Amino acid sequence: MKNYRQAGSVLTLTPSIAVASGVGYLFGAALFGIATSDVPANTPGEFKTDGVFDLGKTAGVAVSVGDRVFWDATNKVVNKTSASQECIGVAVESAAGAADVVAVKLGASLPAAT
Q: I need a labelling partner for 42 at 20 to 30 A (CA). Which of 9, 13, 73, 94 fits?
């Protein structure tokens, strides 16, 4: 194919802030990736855009398998609040409110009902 560019599992992207290795970043309103290494602000770096990752979550929020999770860019964690946040995937394991992380499959979600 003449129009094939790449698999897309890892993309070279430029975040506006520094992103530590293993931390997520939301590009625009719909492209979320996990930094594969430390990426300085305004510098191209590699971001994994698919797969399952243990991501930090908001304290006190219980998450069930199949729950949509939303990115809190301020605190760099996921939660279940859709207001002013973007869905980045779904939980693939349950996590109690006291848990620090939840396993998330990136990009695996349906639009929230309106």
A: 9
